[in-house]
Amino acid sequence: MSEAFKAREKAARKEYPETKAAFGRVRAAAVETMFATLPSHPEKREELTTEGGLDVAGQLASVKSACARLAKAGITVALFIDADPLQLKATRATGAPHIELHTGTYADTSGRKQAAELERITKFARSAKKAGLEVHAGHGLTLQNVGAIARIP
Fold first, then answer.
1. What is d(CA 150, CA 153) in angstroms, rounded to the nearest whole number?
2. Can you tell me the distance from the alpha carbon of 105 to that of 51, in angstroms, rounded to the nearest whole number?
3. Rounded to the nearest 10 degrees, how much is the dihedral formed by the CA atoms of 121, 124, 128, 130?
4. Burial 76-106 (b: 16+ CB within 10 A, else e)
5. Orientation of helix 85-94 relative to helix 60-72, angle to 10°
6. What pLDDT is attached to residue 53?
7. 3 CB contacts (<8 Å, ≥6 apart)?
8. Beta strands in 21-112, from DSSP E residues, in sequence order
9. Band (105; pLDDT cuts 50, 70, 90)
10. 50 and 80 Cβ atoms separated by less than 8 Å
11. pLDDT by residue (tens digit) across 137-150?
């Protein structure tokens, strides 16, 4: 058994109230099931899917604590955020090495509005990458609209 696995196993035996508060039961279960990577999506019971990114800036202390505990257990966290500079600054403060950009607005628009949203997401993704984050994107993407998002460097 590797040292990393032993550390995860030990961490899985503890309760993580900050993790549960920040990310809900699914996030706390990540430690228990020892996922290697953990995406973070805000969820409400009544939602069928997410309707926006996590408000990292608004709950920075608890998200930072949760990210630290998950990292200590060997779990890489990806925070699902909107392309908002305030969220980028807060995400960097959490130590989470990955983000997933919310693309719902892009997916729900067309024409000039979609082109403008693509430009906004592209600029933000470049800033996030330059800040040292690994960048992913998703929400509402289809075969018809994913190509432009996938081409973001």
1. 8
2. 9
3. 120
4. bbbbbbbbbeebbebbbebebbbbbbbbbbb
5. 40
6. 85
7. none
8. 37-40, 76-81, 98-102
9. very high
10. yes
11. 988 889 999 999 99
Predicted local confidence at residue 140, as pLDDT: 86
Q: What angle do CA 107, 137, 72 make, to 5 degrees?
A: 145
Q: What does the pLDDT read at residue 17?
A: 45
The pair of structure tokens assigned to 110 is 């067309």
Residue 92, token pair as written in the block: 């960097």
pLDDT digits (tens, 9 = 90+) for 15-71: 444 444 445 555 555 555 554 444 555 555 454 445 788 889 999 998 999 899 888
Contact 31, 19 (CB under 8 A): yes
SS3 state of residue 35: coil
Q: Which residue has the tokens 């899917």?
A: 49
